């Protein structure tokens, strides 16, 4: 079974490699899945064109899409995306019209007839809209909900794999909260934990012989297409991986490269796991490592597994208001540029 990163295709103009690893694929469908004209681009939001995804699936055997992400409801309601995925024969996990639907796991059989049970979660801090009793959204990435869903899934016979939409964009290393919770899930019996959202490849940690893939990066995410054709990512995001659980119970990393000018993917080959530089660190040691080496340092709080309720909520509120403030500033370019220059002077 092969897990890929973020997919966002407003049209099928991407050039795929002639050779890709064979197997059952699982991908993160980043954004609403809608039926629109292939030449139509939206100013606000990330989406997938159903015709483009259908063509993608004709080339790559995707069997499941996770929709537990922050763009899931950008341009359509939950049912539209889910129904459109069903139209092309792909089930979804991690989102729905209510919390019961969003929490549902799915069993997927690999090419070697081994079945895995998949769960997907999305973090509210990165604008994932949580599903409620009577409201649409994603399966919440919160401690209590993750533990509850995993406990239920572990009652089944299949190995459980958790798919997480977590951490800040472009961050290189996992939040201490993410690492500590992932370790706990492995301790509980989870087979693998696989993450997305940062749009860059993050380290893979082998913990007690089980993989924690902190970030797959993008997969088929068209740049200079969304947000009024201005959404693009730094060059380091052009490195991509797909993660494979092999037939013999091993693990393999497939390396790809994205070319934004040609809108093409190149397959570079496969390798064994290169263990994370922080592998073997205690939680306290890693917290110090993260504070020292984190990429995102500008007014973004660090989350820990032992944060109390009040501390966690205050951090959530701060990040949400920071996000809104940035959106307002970006919409007012003269003010945004003035503040950006001010920050540059202080940091230089």
Q: How would you describe this structure in keywords?
A:
348 residues, alpha/beta, 9 helices, 18 strands, globular
Mean pLDDT: 92
Query: How big is the Rg?
Result: 19 Å
For the secondary structure, the number of strands is 18
Label the structural class. Answer: alpha/beta
Describe the overall structure:
It is built from 9 helices and 18 strands. A hairpin with a 5-residue loop joins strand 8 and strand 9. By secondary structure, it is α/β, with parallel strands linked by helices. The mean pLDDT is 92.
Task: List strands and helices in order, with pairings.
Elements: E1 2-8, E2 25-29, E3 32-34, E4 47-49, H1 50-59, E5 62-66, H2 78-87, E6 92-93, E7 95-96, H3 99-102, E8 106-109, E9 115-122, E10 137-138, H4 143-153, E11 160-165, H5 176-188, E12 192-196, E13 204-207, E14 210-213, E15 218-221, H6 226-229, E16 239-245, E17 251-259, E18 264-271, H7 283-293, H8 309-331, H9 333-347
Parallel strand pairs: 1-2, 1-15, 2-5, 3-4, 5-6, 9-11, 11-12, 12-14
Antiparallel strand pairs: 1-16, 7-10, 8-9, 13-14, 16-17, 17-18
Brief summary:
The protein is an alpha/beta fold. The protein has 9 helices and 18 strands. It is 29% helix and 25% strand.
């Amino acid at each position: 079974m092969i897990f890929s990163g973020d997919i966002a295709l407003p049209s099928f103009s991407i050039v795929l490699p002639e050779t890709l690893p064979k197997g059952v694929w699982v991908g993160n469908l980043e954004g609403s899945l809608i039926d629109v004209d292939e030449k139509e681009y939206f100013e606000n939001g990330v989406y997938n064109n159903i015709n483009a995804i259908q063509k993608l699936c004709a080339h790559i055997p995707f069997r499941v899409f996770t929709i537990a992400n922050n763009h899931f409801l950008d341009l359509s309601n939950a049912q539209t995306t889910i129904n459109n995925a069903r139209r092309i024969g792909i089930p979804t996990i991690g989102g729905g019209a209510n919390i019961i639907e969003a929490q549902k796991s799915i069993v997927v059989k690999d090419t070697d007839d081994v079945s895995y049970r998949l769960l997907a979660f999305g973090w509210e801090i990165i604008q994932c809209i949580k599903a409620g009793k009577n409201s649409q959204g994603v399966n919440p990435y919160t401690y209590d909900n993750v533990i509850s869903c995993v406990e239920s899934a572990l009652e089944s016979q299949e190995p459980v794999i958790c798919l997480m939409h977590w951490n800040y964009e472009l961050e290189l290393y996992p939040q201490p909260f993410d690492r500590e919770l992932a370790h706990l899930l492995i301790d509980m019996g989870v087979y693998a934990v696989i993450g997305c959202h940062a749009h860059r490849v993050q380290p893979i940690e082998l913990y007690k012989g089980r993989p924690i893939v902190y970030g797959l990066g993008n997969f088929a995410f068209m740049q200079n297409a969304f947000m009024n054709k201005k959404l693009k990512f730094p060059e380091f995001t052009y490195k991509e991986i797909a993660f494979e659980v092999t037939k013999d119970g091993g693990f393999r990393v497939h390396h790809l490269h994205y070319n934004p000018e040609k809108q093409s993917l190149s397959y570079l080959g496969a390798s064994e796991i290169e263990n994370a530089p922080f592998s073997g660190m205690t939680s306290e040691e890693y917290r110090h490592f993260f504070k020292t080496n984190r990429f995102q340092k500008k007014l973004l709080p660090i989350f820990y597994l032992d944060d109390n309720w009040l501390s966690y909520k205050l951090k959530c509120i701060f990040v949400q208001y920071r996000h809104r403030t940035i959106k307002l500033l970006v919409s007012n370019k003269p003010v945004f540029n003035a503040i950006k220059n001010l920050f540059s002077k202080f940091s230089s």
